[in-house]
Write a structure and sequence with these properties.
Elements lengths: L3 H10 L4 H10 E6 L4 E3 L7 E7 L2 E6 L5 E7 L4 E2 L2 H6 L6 E4 L3 E7 H10 L1 H27 L2 H11 L9 H8 L3 H13 L1
Helix pairs in contact: 2-4, 4-5, 7-8
């Protein structure tokens, strides 16, 4: 199993002792996911926190008109899950789809509870993860209500330059809340200035 990236990720937050490393090995399960395969679909209950070892994912919803709205992307060393469904155990309104062939490490809720029970270090680590996710969500909400589409695009470029060879302009436009045609206009305007 490919645990080294996850162990390194955790140790960048807090050092792990050998016992904690072995707890991680027991708790997480490796899964290989093919491009266009789902790890969550609308109506399912989200059963895992997913850590991306290799690959790229998107989390999105489909509105009543059939339009897709990307909420999150995840690449190596990122987490992805429908947190609301995971904790409430209610059906999800979201999809999580692999955009590339991928390798992930998944943690079930009951195994997460065991992590917390067996080591306070994991309580601290997951608290930090939750805080980071909350800060990111808050930043995105503020940006969506107070920034122009061009400002959102420039911010996306600045924060996530590593996405541009991996995610289509259609996906980026959906994430920014604009049409692909409008994104093209924005990109042309930026290129000319």
């Amino acid at each position: 199993m490919t645990l080294e990236p996850l162990i390194n990720y955790f140790e960048n937050l807090l050092p792990l002792n050998e016992e904690e490393k072995s707890i991680v090995e027991e708790a997480f399960k490796e899964r290989r996911v093919k491009r266009r395969q789902f790890i969550l679909q609308e109506g399912d209950i989200c059963k895992h926190h997913t850590f991306v070892v290799e690959g790229c994912f998107r989390m999105y919803m489909v509105d009543e008109k059939g339009r897709e709205h990307n909420l999150q992307f995840a690449i190596e060393n990122w987490w992805i899950a429908d947190i609301g469904s995971f904790y409430s155990e209610e059906p999800s309104r979201l999809y999580i789809e692999a955009l590339e062939n991928s390798i992930v490490l998944q943690l079930k809720k009951e195994d997460q509870i065991k992590l917390f029970d067996n080591s306070p270090t994991f309580n601290q680590i997951f608290r930090v993860l939750t805080e980071k996710a909350l800060v990111s969500a808050q930043r995105r909400i503020l940006q969506n209500i107070s920034s122009t589409a061009e400002e959102r695009y420039l911010d996306f470029l600045k924060r996530h330059p590593h996405f541009f060879n991996r995610i289509s302009n259609v996906q980026i436009a959906s994430y920014l809340g604009v049409t692909p045609e409008f994104l093209s206009i924005i990109r042309n305007k930026i290129a000319k200035s």
